[in-house]
Amino acid sequence: MSPRPMFSRGTAACAPWVRTRLRTAPGAACALGLLVLLTAFLAAAFPRAVDRYEDEGLRHDLAAAAPRRSMLEVSSPAPGLEVPQAAREKAVREPSVASVHRRLLAGLPDPLRADTGQSAYGLRTTNPIPAGEPWFPRPYGIDPELTYTTQSALPDHSTLREGRWPAARGEVTATTEEVEAAVTEETAKALRIRTGATVSVPAIRGEQFTVRITGIVAPLRPEAAYWSAEPLLRTPSLVAKPTKTEPRYYWTAALLLPPDAAPVLLATTGQPEVYWRIMPDVARLTTTDVPLLRSSVASLEGGPGLLNVRTAVGETATVTTDLDEIVSAYDGMRQAIRPVVTVAAVGIGAVAVIVLLMTGGLIAGRRHTELALLRARGGSLRSLGGRLLAETAVTAVPAAALGLLLAVLVIDGTRLWPSAVGAAAVGALVCAALPVRTVLPHRRPRLHGGREDLVSVRPSRRRTVAELTVLVLAVGAVVALRRRGTGGGGGTDLLVSAAPVLVGLIAALVLVRLYPLPLRLALRSVARLRGAVGFLALARAGRSSAAGTLPLLALLVALTTAAFGGSVLAGVADARDTAAVLATGADARISGGADSAPLSDGLVRTVSGADGVQEAARVQIEYGVSLPPPEDGFEDARGATLIGVDPVTYARLARSTGIGAFPADRLKYTGPATPKGTLPSPDRVVPVLASPSVAQRLGDRPRDLQSMAGDFRIQVAGTVAHTPAVTDTSFMVVDAAALTHRQTTALLLTGDRLDAKELRTAAHRASKDLTVQLRSEVRAAYVDTPMQVGAERIYTAAIVAGAGYALLAVLLSLLRTAPERTTLLARLRTMGIGTRQGGRLLGLEAMPQALLAAAGGLLVGRATIALLAPGVDLVHLALSTGPGSGLLYNAPLRADPWSMVLPALGVIVLTAAVAGVQAWWTGRRGSITELRAGDSR
Q1: Cis-peptide, bond into residue 702, ω within 30° of zero
Q2: Helix H or strand E segment including 226
Q3: Where are the alpha helices (DSSP H) in 313-380?
Q4: Which residues, including other chains, have CB under 8 Å from residue 125's CB and lie 6 or more apart?
Q5: Which of 199, 245, 379, 770 has a beta carbon 3.0–4.6 Å from 763's, enabling a disulfide?
Q6: Contacts of 84 (CB under 8 A, 6+ apart)
């Protein structure tokens, strides 16, 4: 046997590549992991945040709707006379109706689920029955009309205040002579009902039976569906009886019978009806359930679901609900808001991708010499790329997984796969970007690379073609957004949503091509100066690598996204302010019902002297004034609103609110004064300020007008689209001094820090029918839906993330050339340059690109808002419901100076700060440490 060699080629020792690299540069690995963690968290958090506010918005809309609209009501007439009497009575008894109720709940199609606690069933009279007892109140001498119902589970939803619970004594039939009932406290108070009182109810065959009141109850949750589905069960109502003269009112109320007493209602003339009210349980509904929910409701109203209901109830059963309308309104708002939110997501996503590519470029630049040496010694591209992929994956994959886990823990959501896809995309991009970005420059070994100065390099034909392609895409996206808008019915279009990003990309390419021109001019000017710092700094700025396009692109896209997000929030705030002003007409408004109740002079004086009130404008409003027929002879029944004002005071109000400003002289009546004790002449001509529709109908010549305020002739002196006093679009504003019958029906107040309590106290002291409406309260009512709040939070996060990525792009750009600048300072110090001069040199070298990015970001942000404003409608994002919500037809973007200026200033300040810190740190280390022998820097 031959002796075994001491050393074997197959067992050559080799240090593990990944472990060695991570131990060599732990700081870079940790920084890369932190960046991936943050980006993966944002990518995973965005879809979960959207799902959460959309789910909460759906539940909010369903819960906030009136129960009579959101619940499913199944009803069927009581069995007719053709059915045997025993069978009729059995069909309406508690066991039979409860059995059908259980079958209905079990047969609800997905995703509908019932809230059994608020669902109810019973028998009711559909036609109210007059009550002739003399002790009932009769405001106009009309007997009250009562509804009788046997709603289930009354003790579970109310508290007994007086008496005892009503119960069925023995077996109740249609011929029973007396049954028991209960009423609510409000009904008992309004109709003067006491325990022990009896009400006679007429029967079909001319007989009658007695209903004895045994208890007075108080609802546990009056606003809940059990009581609010039919408010008459809880609260009586005064109903106007239609007459040709003034209306006459009478009381209507409901008496609550026990469920076992239902057969007695078959003998009444009230046309009894069996009903099952099913309140949907919205706690588990999500946005993904909307299509199936709409389909299920449609099926119940007129499809297979209705057939199943009729199988359980009977052939005459019907299903009524407004649930489909509520869901359709929600879906419309969601479809209008989602494209606007997608614009922010695309912008931040593009910035994040660019920053990740910059990170890969920074790492590739730092390791260029190392990989060139391995390549020269025979290393293949596959082996280099595989090792770099493994090295990056060890850091990026756990960081992306941790970002996903953090997003899942922080933000609630129902769907995991969109977040997982986002985090995985970030991890895959980082794992692929670094090997590709690092290996591609080493396809062909080169001894020395050519210069790639930003000033001297010429764009290739491929680059020109690529830039022209991006330009075409950007123009197409902007045109599509301006024409179709974000609220188009076609859903979310990624090309349209990427319009701000494409505009920023085009601006970056244009600025890179124009950048050498001002730099050359500055070099010529600085060359004549005696100092060498300025010339050297600008010369080095011109020699910066052409790869600096990527940082500039990141900065411009980040600044554009932040500016766009700020303009969205500013546009939303403006839309809400405008809607609040249109709803109130001033900072506060005091008026009676329909603006018809006259306000006393004492109230006007009291309110004018209240704290914070600067001026009170008296307004006289008369609705429905008949207009003279138009000159073309076509006549319609449309009227207009006549508004009498003091021209000077009202003109100041219009200017301060920005609603229909006009010069006071145009409205002031200058005709002859009316002698005391005589009526004004009906032939006097009064100038009016009219809306466009009224002005078109009146024409240019004087026209006769008859109104309760007086008869006179009017002539259009000007037109305004809106006016503070009313929200109508058909109005006429005249000088109140020209009116025959003058009175104040509304007060419009202006001032700061108005005391709402003091104003309401003064108004209610004058009359309890007066209402006080503050603009601040109306303004606060618009931020009420989770969908709107969630979308605004996403845009706020977009602004912060855009600014953060912009600053990170600055740091990465400066870190890429930091070793080169450090070596330069060390060499210049050996020639006598000081620390202060070194700081000035680094600052002046980095400042041209920082100024270019900041100024470009301001200009591009402003241009993007101007280009995209016509296509972005923020009405659904700004307004949902409330006064004035229907007065705005569009809400455009508005440039927000702070969101444009602050990130741009941050870029400049950060650049100067990094340059100063680097000069100070290099001065402390000394030249010997930096200028080592054999160093190639």
Answers
A1: no
A2: helix 225-228
A3: 323-366, 368-376
A4: 147, 148, 149, 265, 268, 270, 271, 272, 273
A5: 770
A6: none
Beta bridge partners of 122: 275
129-130/145-149 β-pairing: antiparallel
Strands 685-690, 731-735: pairing kind: antiparallel
Residue 236: pLDDT band (50, 70, 90) is very high
Q: Which helix (H) or strand (E) holds 672?
A: none
Instruction: Tell me the percentage of the chain whose pLDDT exceeds 90.
Output: 13
Amino acid making up residue 605 = R
Half-sphere exposure of 170 (CA within 13 A, CB side): 9
How far apart CA 891 and CA 687 sit, in angstroms, is 33
Predicted TM-score of the model (pTM): 0.76
CA 484, 490, 492, 495 torsion: positive or negative? Answer: negative
Q: Is 799 helix (H, G, I), strand (E, B) or coil?
A: helix
User: What sign for the dihedral angle of Cα 858, 859, 864, 866?
Assistant: positive
Rounded CA gap, 220 and 155, in Å?
10
Decide: residue 536, CB within 10 A, 0-12 exposed, 13-18 middle, 19+ buried.
Answer: middle
**Three-state DSSP class for 815?**
helix
Asked if 519 contacts 848 with a C-beta cutoff of 8 angstroms, the reply is: yes
- Cβ neighbours of residue 518 closer than 8 Å, sequence gap 6 or more: none
Calculated CA dihedral for residues 243, 247, 248, 249, nearest 10 degrees: 120
C-beta atoms surrounding 702 within 10 Å: 17
Degrees, nearest 5: CA angle 133-139-143: 35
**pLDDT for 460:** 65
Which of 132, 149, 137, 134 lies closest to 238 in space, CA to CA? 137
The answer for residues whose C-beta is within 8 angstroms of residue 47's C-beta and 6 or more apart is 413, 415, 418, 419, 422
Hey, is 750 helix, strand or coil?
A: strand
Encoded tokens for 194: 């006491």
439 bridge partner residues: none
779, exposed or middle or buried, with CB in 10 Å at 0-12, 13-18, 19+? Answer: buried
Q: What torsion do the CA atoms of 372, 378, 381, 387 make, to the nearest 10 degrees?
A: -80
Residue type, 442: H
Distances (CA, A) of 55 to 47, 48, 435, 514, 566: 12, 10, 41, 48, 25
- CA-closest candidate to residue 209, choices 252, 160, 138, 261: 261
Instruction: Check: CB of residue 919 under 8 Å from CB of residue 839.
Output: yes
Provide, for the chain, the percentages of residues in helix, strand and coil under a 3-state DSSP scheme, each rounded to the nearest 5: 55, 15, 30
DSSP 648-671: HHHHHHHHHHTSS---HHHH---S
557/846 Cα distance (integer angstroms): 20
Q: Are 73 and 320 in contact (CB under 8 A)?
A: yes
- Strand partners for 198: 212
Tell me how crowded residue 191 is: count the other CB atoms within 10 A of its CB.
22
Distances, alpha carbon 171 to alpha carbons 176, 372, 530, 606, in Å? 9, 101, 116, 66
Residue 393 to residues 348, 399, 434, 861, Cα–Cα distance (Å): 24, 9, 10, 37
Q: Which amino acid is at 263?
A: P
Q: Which of 341-350, 503-512, 858-867 is predicted with the least confidence, judged by mean pLDDT?
A: 503-512
Average pLDDT on 563-582 reads 83
The length of the chain in residues reads 937
- Lookup: tokens for 231: 């408010």
